[in-house]
Write a structure and sequence with these properties.
- The complex is a heterodimer.
- Chain A folds into three domains: about 35-70 and about 85-115, no CATH class; about 125-230, Cupredoxins -  blue copper proteins (Immunoglobulin-like), CATH 2.60.40.420; about 245-335, Cupredoxins -  blue copper proteins (Immunoglobulin-like, Sandwich), CATH 2.60.40.
- Chain A is built from nine helices and 13 strands.
- Chain A has helices at about 5-10, 35-70, 85-115, 230-240, 250-260, 260-265, 300-305, 310, 325-335, and strands at about 25, 125-130, 135-140, 145-150, 150-155, 165-170, 175-180, 185-190, 195-200, 205-210, 220-230, 290, 295.
- In chain A, strand 3 (about 135-140) and strand 4 (about 145-150) form a beta hairpin.
- Chain B has helices at about 1-5, 20-25, 30-60, 70-105, 115-135, 165-195, 210-240, 255-285, 295-305, 325-350, 360-385, 385-390, 395-425, 430-455, 475-505, 540-545, and strands spanning about 425-430, 505.
- In chain B, strands 1-2 form a two-stranded antiparallel sheet.
- Classes of the chains: A alpha+beta, B mainly alpha.
- The interface between A and B is large, with 93 and 99 residues.
Amino acid sequence: MDSPARLACILFTTAAFAPGQSVYPIANMFKPEATPADSIYNISMLMLAICAAIFLVVGGLLLFTIVRFRSRKTDNSREPVQVYGSNRIEIAWTVIPVLIVIVLSMATARAVVEVQNKKMPPDALKVTVVGHQWWWEIRYPELGIVTANELHVPQSTLAKPAHTLLKLQSADVAHSFWVGQLSGKVDLIPGITNSMWLDPRRTGIYLGNCAEYCGTQHANMLIRVIVDSPADFENWVAAQKLNASSDPQLEAARSAFLSLNCINCHTVSGTAARGTFGPDLSHLMSRTTLASGMIPNTAENLRAWVKDPQAIKHGNLMPNMQLNPRELDEVVTYLASLK
Amino acid sequence: MAATTHIVGLGEAEGVSVPSKLHDWLVTVDHKRLGILYIGTALFFFGVAGILAALMRWQLAYPNSTFLTPEVFNRLFTMHGTTMVFLVGMPFFAGLANYLTPLMIGSRDMAFPRLNAFGYWIFLMGGILLYFSYIAGEGLAGHGTAPDVGWFAYAPLTERAFSRGTSTDYWILSIMLTGIGTTASALNVVVTVISMRCKGMTLARMPLFVWLMLVVSSMVLFILPPLTAAQIMLLLDRYLGAHFFDTQAGGSAILWQHFFWLFGHPEVYVLMLPGFACANEIIPVFSRKPMFGRAAMIGATIAIGMVSSGVWAHHMFTVGMSASSNIYFAVASMVVGIPTGIKIFNWLGTMYGGKIRFDTPMLFCIAFLFQFLIAGLTGVMLAVAPFDWQVTDSYFVVAHFHYVLLGGLLFTLFGAVYYWFPKATGKMLNETLGKWHFWLLVIGFHLTFDTLHFAGILGMPRRIYTYAPGRGWETLNLISSIGVIFQAAGVACLVWNILRTLRKGEPAGNDPWDGWTLEWATTSPPPEYNFAALPEVRSSRPLWDLKHPEDPDWRYE
């Protein structure tokens, strides 16, 4: 990697950006912040309790047996009593596990139905998430918004419950959407539409990853779910619905951008840039990160990324466009204006 | 003269020239030599796969590491997984089954000695072909070298659109070759066990080891075809324009997963049951008691074999199956826990009331019991579908299956190496080095894999070549990587022990452990014909009957 990008990468900590918003970088499934994660948490605690009890009993018996029945120097040379088995004991240690399995099965079935068969209210926010090698396309069909890698959803409160229903699809290979504090993972599989739902109760930024190996940069296919308060979410929606800003003073920069191959892969709303292969750039500067959550969206990082994306995220599908310094200046200037 | 050289046993051929010895090994159809070749090859590939794993742990020891590029890392985990399953686990099964089955059932060889040799060599070719991809996988177009699609190679990542070049083809073809070898071995074991038992050895008196090998071999015959079929479909997709998994032309990405796990899940038991088989022999001998509940053990094994073939989709709880399918596969997977639990209880029952000797083979089996208990419990956890939604494809799963395959399988296999090495070579492995091996491996194993459960719970997905700091994973990963040093030192003790013992080991005698099964009735190493006169047995512990004429087992049958 080149030095500035490398430095940005190394200094990159998840708390280093997003001022004012709390960040939850540790996707700990035992700190649930939404109903589906709660259901999973509850069944997991029951399961852990049962397994811990089994471990203590069986492990304790093993330990006792090993210590109590170890051969000792003082032993005589006679063989111990030869016992071949006992049907009564066999039945006992078959029936007890059967009972445990029955209990755990019923609890599991209930939790599966709770999460999977939940009826969504008609006013649930509908979002389509499309997995790409190695980024997330995020569409709000009812709001006409297209963005990438950072999923904004409204906070769900007791007074005003808000559900978000995700339709999960893939444009290429299998991916998996996993933000542990909000829900379990669901795969994004080409040719199939899966779904999951969220109702997060605390605002903030929740980190997650693609959890199905999807090729070279699987590791850097990071997802951020940004839970906004209802008012913040309204503001965000309103801003995203606008066409991309077109500052007349940046006319030169804009026409330079539009004259380059950038537009074959990227969309900027209200312009001739209509490509759909890469992330939508209409409101690029409203996002906190670049490269699917790999680096913070700063001026230096943006420039380094446009100059040579391969130096930062080796193997990603955006080629080094070999821009000359003047083109680079203009493209970065234009992109930086896309608030 | 030809006849006399023909019956010279392994290790007796002193004074024979090196080329002639090599020639003997190349053309051998002796089940013991083929067994040793299988196990030696498995140990070699184990070393290779271990080095791959160590490189990965080095890369993951600290965040944002640039020690390896993503491409190299992705090849490493693909090759590590493929090697451990197909080039270490499977040949260990074939090697143990080959070496011990005829000796334990009192037969002179396997039923099909030439098929046996063919199986080994075709398996070895498969292994070489897989690693040849590092040299030749580049092809003419320069699209990467070794396979990098993961050991379960999910479509459509393996389709030509996403996996150019020939690396995926190397993966397909080399595994097909090893599959031919494994099928040959399995067929051979089934026929040998059914038709070549010595006089008096009814199925009910057959050693548990042989019983388990019979079950494993039968499973292999049923589960390999789905994998081979899927691989052929993938080849058709890649080269003849078929669309089985090509989602853009209406193919199904899920189809591959069903086919693969229809093989892949029972495969876990195919790998694990040989470990159980070894524990079944070692634990009774070192507890000085017969196996508690023999019939229940056999029944539990058959139950595991059958139930494990109906639970495959618990690897697919997140692909979007209906709630009812998820519940079925969750419950079925929990049911596997019942016969597995019965096994652990029976081992416990065997040790209870015994006089337990802590020689190296038994140490490995005791560690196995504790570790497999934990592995089994995390397995039950993963069967709870909602918990699985969280931790599948995370480091929790990585930790779980390494607990099964390293903490469970590999520990029993190492126990088996210490237990039967004296039989195979006539020399005792050094106990002190054995104990060093054991304790270093125990420490290393727990440092490496206990920590990874927590990394998974904290959201770390598997198969990532690097991670950013600040996500709660750094310390866990560093400890995990440090564990590798201990594991490597442990394995180095084993290698040194074997080399040293082969040069100047203590003679073992025919029956160093005071064992009860027929392999201890012949010389160490056994002659090529195994037994001067074929034995006749009256119980499941023929040597106990010989040693204790006042209290023979057959009196209780």
